[in-house]
Design brief:
Layout (H helix, E strand, L loop, with lengths): L1 E4 L7 H14 L8 E4 L6 H9 L3 E3 L10 E4 L6 H9 L3 E4 L3 H15 L3 E5 L5 H8 L5 E4 L13 E6 L5 H14 L2 E4 L5 H14 L4 E5 L5 H13 L5 E4 L15 E6 L5 H13 L5 E4 L14
Parallel strand pairs: 1-12, 1-13, 2-3, 2-4, 4-5, 6-7, 6-8, 8-9, 10-11, 10-12
Helix pairs in contact: 4-5, 7-8
């Protein structure tokens, strides 16, 4: 059995940047204040557990954060009122918002300020989209990927942006539909380049393997999208989304010689490697190949 690990599998630049901010903060000898994050810093349970073991607490609201706490803003950003409250309370805030997430935030502010009705293609319940929408200074509509633009009576000019982890096909559909419905349409592609690269590689990998394992948090939008894309190419029963190696089942791989592994942008390399080793143990002579490898996540990294 040959196991091919996608070159792009593992932490993206933005996630690694935020994780490192937390590690640097907890290991700073000059900082005695407790450290917390506003919401889970990334959508990966293993990373969150490692941080919690180091004493990093997770709070959903700024009002619940104790005075004197160093607060790290999650990769997905935060809503404007939470930023304002943290400033009002004079908390020590470290902004871990991914720069690629800041881009749609800035565009939401600018485009609504220019009089556009903002259309955001994304999941209204996702932390990133809640944050982006909070920057709008005028009316906005959130369109779930794959759904149609709702009736917008009286609207003549719209601007369309996207959740950074969306499949580009959803964004293109909304832009195309908008161009036929409204007098003026401005489209700004806010999809992260890393997301598009991972999705392209999954499509290419699915043409070469018989089954695909997607590794990452069940709450991770970009990881779920990878599994959805793979299920459109391979038979859905050959695509499995797992968070850890313990979820793997030997029967998933019976009779197959080519297995692929992809992973979301918030999945640590050591988790991916553990999944690959476990799959290889299911078959004599099983081995894993990876075109590109980055250092595994370990809390001791930042303490050196």
């Amino acid at each position: 059995m040959r196991i091919t690990i996608a070159r792009t599998a593992g932490f993206c630049w933005g996630v690694r940047r935020t994780v490192n901010k937390v590690l640097e903060t907890t290991s700073d000898p000059d900082r005695s204040a407790p450290v917390a994050t506003l919401g889970p810093v990334i959508h990966n349970p293993q990373v969150i557990s490692k941080f919690e073991a180091q004493g990093v607490k997770v709070y959903q609201k700024v009002e619940d954060v104790p005075d004197g706490t160093t607060l790290v803003i999650r990769t997905h950003g935060a809503v404007v009122p939470e930023h304002d409250l943290a400033k009002e309370r004079e908390l020590d805030v470290i902004d871990g918002t991914c720069p690629y997430v800041k881009f749609p935030q800035v565009m939401a502010l600018r485009l609504t300020g220019e009089g556009y009705h903002l259309i955001v293609v994304g999941d209204a319940n996702h932390a990133e989209i809640k944050g982006v929408a909070s920057y709008a200074k005028g009316p906005y509509t959130i369109v779930r990927p794959g759904e149609d633009i709702p009736p917008l009576p009286g609207v003549k000019k719209v601007a369309v942006i996207s959740q950074t982890t969306n499949d580009s096909t959803y964004f293109k559909k909304v832009v195309g539909d908008a161009s036929l419905r409204f007098r003026e349409v401005r489209a700004v592609n806010t999809i992260c380049y890393d997301t598009g690269e991972r999705q392209t590689e999954v499509r290419e990998l699915c043409d070469k393997v018989e089954a695909l394992i997607v590794v990452g948090g069940k709450m991770s939008a970009n990881t779920r999208h990878l599994a959805e894309i793979a299920s459109e190419i391979l038979p859905p029963e050959r695509v499995h989304h797992v968070e850890r190696s313990e979820e793997l089942r030997p029967e998933w791989f019976e009779g197959f010689t080519e297995i692929g592994i992809s992973a979301g942008a918030s999945t640590p390399d050591d988790v991916i490697d553990d999944v690959a080793r476990t799959i290889a143990s299911f078959a004599p002579g099983g081995h894993a190949e990876r075109a590109f490898h980055t250092p595994s996540f370990t809390p001791t990294h930042a303490n050196r």
